[in-house]
Each structure stands twice: as C-alpha cells, then as structure tokens.
Write a structure and sequence with these properties.
It is a single chain. The chain contains no helices and nine strands. It is mainly β. The chain is about 0% helix and about 60% strand. The protein has one domain (about 15-120): Jelly Rolls, CATH 2.60.120.10. Strands 1, 2, 3, 4, 5, 6, 7, 8 and 9 form a nine-stranded antiparallel sheet that branches. Strand 6 (about 65-80) and strand 7 (about 85-90) form a beta hairpin.
Length: about 120
C-alpha cells in the first residue's frame, strides 16, 4: 500500500459554517467558516482553514491532550490566557495553543488561519 503526500490545492475540503456554542461566548457571536482538508482515520489529527468572519470573542477550553498550531493568514486576533497574558497575532504570525489551555480567543478583525489540531496523543 502506498501513502502519498497531498497538496491542498488538489483536495476537496468539507465546508462548515458555524457559531460558537452560546455558553462559550464572551462578546458578539462571530460567524465562522471551517474548511476541513484532512482528518486522519483515528480522528486525532486535523488540518483546517478557519475564518472568523466577524469580530467577537469566545472561550477556549482544551483538554490536556488537545493541541493546536495556528498560522494566521489574514486579519488580527488575540489569545488571552487566564493569567492575563495576551498574545496578538497578525497575518504571517504563528502560535501554539497547548493542551490544558483555558482562555479567550478574540477576533479583533475578520481573520483567516491555517490550523493543525492534534488530539488524544
């Protein structure tokens, strides 16, 4: 059996328009578009392009075994940690949200990110 690398431009993503669950909302109710390009057979590794189409913020609470790598393609977001630390990302910036994170994701300007999420490892 051969396993091949995959080029994003040649994949057919699955599109999902969504809003954060009401109990996670901090401000606004930003509409989001999720393009899922790859999910491994165990559903523990996902590669997506996400867009926050409107400003607003919502709580992120990750279990210890969920990690997300983000590369911001457009716009501006802030990630607020519980201890008051805030990182601001603009197009071209990258960050990692590690397992166990509990904080707020704020869409300051409509934004687009490439994300890789790993769970259960």
């Amino acid at each position: 059996m051969s396993i091949n690398a995959m080029k994003y431009a040649e994949l057919k993503p699955v599109f999902l328009e969504k809003y954060s669950p009401p109990e996670t909302l901090v401000s606004g109710n930003p509409k989001q578009l999720l393009e899922t390009y790859f999910v491994d057979p165990t559903n523990r590794f996902r590669s997506v392009i996400w867009e926050g189409l409107e400003t607003g913020s919502y709580r992120l609470t990750y279990p210890a075994n969920k990690h997300e790598f983000i590369h911001l393609l457009a716009g501006r977001v802030k990630v607020h940690s519980q201890d008051g630390t805030v990182i601001e990302l603009v197009a071209g910036d990258s960050c990692v949200i590690p397992g166990g994170f509990d904080g707020i994701f704020e869409i300051v300007e409509p934004a687009k990110k490439h994300a890789v999420i790993v769970e259960g490892l």
